[in-house]
Amino acid sequence: MSYLKALCLLACSVLIISCTTNRHVVKNLNTNWQFSEKGKNGWLKASVPGTIHTDLLAHNLIPEPFYRSSEDSVQWVSQKDWAYKTDFKADKSILLRDSVELVFNGLDTYADVFVNGRHVLSANNMFRTWHVPVKHLLRQNNELLIIFRSAEKYVDSAAKAALPYVRPSENNRHYARKAQYNFWWDWAPKMITSGIWKDIQLNAYNGPNPLRIYAPSAENKVRLVQEKDSIGESFYFTVDGKPTYMKGANWVPGDVFLPRMTRERYRDLLVSAKDAGFNMLRVWGGGIYESDHFYELCDSLNIYVWQDMMFAGAIYPSADRGFLENVRAEIRDNVLRLRKYKCIVLWCGNNEIKEAFYNWGWHRQFKISKQDSVKLYNEYVTLFEKVIPEEIARYDSRQYIPTSPLHFGYGHPESLTHGDTHNWWVWVMGKPIEFYKQTVPRFASEFGMQAFPNWETVEKFTSEEDRNFQMPADLIIQNPAIRSHEKHIRGFENLALYLKQNGFQPKTFREYIENTQEVQSRALETAIKTQMNSNGRCMGTLFWQFNDCWPVASWSVIDYYGNKKKAYYTVKKLFSAK
């Protein structure tokens, strides 16, 4: 062998050894999981990512929660603590790295983690990514155990501990950093999930942690303009300096059981939005910071995203230092993850909390003293006007507003002249559809009308007996299977009102469904036409809501199974024309 050839071989060997020594090793730990009720024997196969409800359902231990009124019969699940475990191997490629950590991309929500019997983490935030050093605990064969504690019991306990100081909410969900719609919303069931809802990885590396190196912020060519003018104060977006009318809707989580949302389901929904002429979606603050699939698709489809932080309709316990630090970490994790997406054009602190504080009657309902009222408002200011914007600004330069609606609730005249508006005169207050013509805002960030989903969707959650009855409508209300799929407190009452106002007298349930969809279509047509033809007064139309998390009567234009209501085609025609 020549000297030159030997030298070349030696150099190549050194290069290979160097690459092997410094390479980043990631081991996926989503396989071979089992679950059990805590303290019970009898481990069963689990799916990761997943939820306790979907695991129980896979073993026929609970009924299908979406069928008829089965929601009621699965409420015991959220009262229990649940255990998940798996075994995994760590070979030399992992054990010889300088650093080894477990990475939990999503634990829902209160979880104690054990590695080979040693406690390594107490998680308390569904939205955070947890990095746990474990090199000192690993051996060739390892056991990973996670105990999920009941979120429902936790929030009830936290609320009792706060007494006599009451933080307003319709339930105690605001004590948990967890998707708020899990606790019930007026379009969502009470389904308080728990489990490993995102991937788990074993990350081994030398030198800097490659999973902590984040992409820089995407270039932002979209600006929100808020300026005093002859009407009041503007609220519109410019793209490359050009005022642009925003057309779209509010986005809610696509499933009660989040791991069931595949890239294909995201694509189907977002392509439908694009086909309907959308250029913006608002990710609503009672759900989740969405999957990377969502933002990747919005980037590719040129759909802008108004991104709420995950707070909605409650006063959160920001006087608690631990809560604030938890939120700081949550904001950091998600802004660092999401800042690379060009689709995101606005950060918003919360949904409707300032409006709720002033306009929802909390002070009377909860008998809040003036002294406590000051404390509550200070908690609001601390969280949404200090902590969250400060944390966002550390990592991204895109604009931030503390809440939506920004200035005034819809009961105030200024709501039509200043900032964005959630216009609920129609539906909530019972005003006729034509009232939209008298209430043109600067930017409509919420408004809408309910309708039942399509007949083929109703067939999936009801029995034939449920469906085949004659009117009047009060028979619908008496049917538990139908009633459980209408979550608004006055839903049936309001639907009856708008059917009557628009001249409908359905004789069958099928007619009733079709008529509610016709009313919804008329309502959105009236509102959108009025807003889009306001000579620049209104510069944005985001109706409530685009999609659903389960089969339900709601404001959506596409139901849980992807079936389009009549209003979808009405919106498509209007948005595509401008």
Task: Describe this entry's structure for a reader.
- The protein has 17 helices and 25 strands.
- By secondary structure, the chain is of the alpha/beta class.
- The protein has two domains: 21-212, Sandwich (Jelly Rolls); 234-313 and 325-351 and 384-576, Glycosidases (TIM Barrel).
- Strands 3-2-4-10-7-8 form a six-stranded antiparallel beta sheet. It has a six-stranded parallel beta sheet with strand order 22-21-20-19-18-25. Strands 1-14-5-9 form a four-stranded antiparallel beta sheet.
- Helix 5 (263-275) runs parallel beside helix 6 (292-301).
- The protein is globular.
- It starts with a helix and ends with a helix.
- Residues 1-21 have low confidence and may be disordered.
